[in-house]
């Protein structure tokens, strides 16, 4: 690359980091090159960069870049233990202090996360929904209009139990529409976390903030500024939930780390409170009684396990739902035609919504020997995304024909059979799934488990079997 082009690219990368918070290391700069060429085609690169630097972040060009550069992967009931902790333990503690409880989902993408809070709060009944105010913000305008439409694909609902789906969603030709009473409980706003906006982050604005899987790619300095704003905007003792791969270590001392089940989250320290390490030393295993009467253990963060390399590293990142990193790692490896690498590539295409590419690889793998079962399964997932449940069901049936011990294929075939009213067929497949799940291959659980472990999937099968008995 010519020196002048390299310097233009460096300025573009720096502007993107400064305005959107998105960090690209040198090895990734090449990803931005075609985008810069495309956006600057009308004006020339120099003029384009000048205009970009002087444009406010609310101007159209920055919105267009946000749409192209952000990663919006999300789904309903993602990291469920955190959400359960929020609605069962955290929010009820504020009921006596405030008429309304305010929750912010920062980086809410297409709305699945704030709607999950609303849905779960209704299901659990610990907080009166009329007192719950939920606000979702995101820098991507397309994600925000999707959130306002509140209509979702089956893939977005993959972790929603059947009974919940039937109660709160309506099947429409476009997908699953959230019922208006839940939809209207959440409001959305286009907003960039990198902007200061003191009025928005005014003290005491929120009781809890969820900012999960958003700052993974932010440089530490940007994260520090955003977390400081969030600390200021929380009520005293307010709560912050980050994604499982994100941490405040080295970023902020304003919070203490807590644990509920296997979920980690943070609480704003009270000025007079001892530090978490002092508490942990005084009573390492005892439960701490907080100002708001809820008992929550104060813990030290677990040391992250070293990630494996190569294709196994990709699988590890995929299981942790770190799809963008998984994709970057996969791209950095020598192109491999090994079935496991191809399967991973196809699943990552699917997660990124590149259904055409996922389907193409799926067909290739379905024709090869040894990968027919997962390939048919993947093709079934693609067809479900296209809304073709009949086609998807025949793919799942093909997957178990190719490998009769494939529990996930049996589960999905059974689920779609039940939905089609074919209860006898559904029961057979679901019972097979139940008996096969304890031995399901770890690779398949990582690729297709939808965030559920073996036990969680067995619960899903039991719910499906229960639903079969309810079919008239
Ligand atoms: C991976 S999604 C996470 C969605 C949801 N929180 C979850 O965990 O399922 C990350 C979201 O953060 C948003 N985001 C990235 N940078 C942002 C910024 N500077 N301001 C606001 N939102 C941002 C992206 O547009 C994207 O929708």
TrEMBL record:
SMART domains xref list: MeTrc
Keywords per UniProt: Methyltransferase, S-adenosyl-L-methionine, Transferase
Pfam families: CheR
Top-level taxonomic group: Bacteria
Record bears the keyword Methyltransferase: yes
CheR-type methyltransferase domain sequence ranges: 1-271
Name of this chain's protein: Chemotaxis protein CheR
């Amino acid at each position: 690359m010519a020196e002048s082009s390299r310097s233009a690219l460096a300025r573009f990368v720096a502007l993107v980091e400064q305005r959107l918070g998105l960090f690209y290391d040198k090895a990734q700069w090449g990803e931005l090159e075609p985008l810069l060429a495309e956006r600057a085609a009308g004006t020339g690169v120099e003029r384009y960069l000048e205009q970009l630097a002087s444009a406010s972040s609310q101007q159209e060009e920055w919105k267009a870049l946000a749409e192209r550069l952000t990663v919006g992967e999300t789904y309903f009931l993602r990291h469920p233990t955190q959400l359960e902790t929020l609605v069962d333990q955290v929010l009820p503690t504020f009921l006596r202090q405030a008429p309304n409880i305010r929750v912010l989902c920062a980086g809410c993408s297409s709305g699945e996360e704030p709607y999950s809070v609303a849905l779960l709060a209704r299901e659990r009944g610990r907080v009166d929904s009329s007192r719950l105010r939920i606000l979702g913000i995101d820098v991507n305008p397309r994600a925000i209009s999707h959130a306002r439409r509140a209509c979702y694909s089956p893939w977005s609902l993959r972790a929603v139990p059947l009974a919940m789906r039937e109660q709160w969603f309506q099947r429409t030709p476009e997908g699953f529409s959230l019922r208006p009473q839940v939809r209207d409980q959440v409001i959305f706003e286009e907003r960039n976390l990198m902007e200061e906006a003191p009025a928005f982050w005014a003290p005491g604005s929120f009781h809890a903030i969820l900012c999960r899987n958003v700052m993974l790619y932010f440089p530490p300095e940007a994260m520090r500024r955003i977390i400081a704003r969030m600390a200021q905007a929380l009520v005293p003792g307010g709560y912050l939930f980050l994604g499982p791969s994100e941490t405040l270590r080295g970023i902020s001392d304003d919070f203490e780390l807590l644990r509920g089940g296997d979920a980690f989250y943070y609480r704003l320290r009270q000025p007079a409170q001892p530090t978490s390490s002092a508490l942990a030393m005084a009573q390492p295993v005892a439960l701490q009684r907080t100002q708001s009467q809820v008992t929550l253990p104060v813990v030290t963060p677990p040391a992250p396990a070293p990630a494996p390399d190569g294709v196994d590293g990709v699988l590890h990142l995929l299981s942790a739902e770190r799809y963008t990193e998984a994709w970057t790692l996969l791209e950095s490896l020598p192109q491999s035609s090994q079935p496991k690498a191809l399967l991973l590539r196809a699943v990552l295409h699917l997660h990124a919504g590149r259904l055409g590419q996922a389907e193409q690889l799926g067909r290739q793998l379905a024709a090869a020997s040894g990968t027919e079962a997962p390939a048919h399964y993947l093709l079934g997932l693609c067809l479900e995304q296209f809304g073709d449940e009949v086609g998807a069901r025949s793919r799942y049936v093909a997957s178990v024909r190719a490998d009769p011990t494939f529990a996930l294929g049996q589960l999905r075939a059974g689920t779609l059979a039940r939905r089609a009213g074919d209860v006898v067929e559904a029961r057979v497949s679901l019972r097979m799934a139940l008996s096969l799940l304890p031995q399901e291959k770890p690779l398949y659980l990582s690729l297709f488990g939808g965030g559920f472990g073996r036990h969680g999937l067995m619960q899903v099968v039991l719910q499906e079997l229960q639903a079969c008995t309810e079919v008239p």
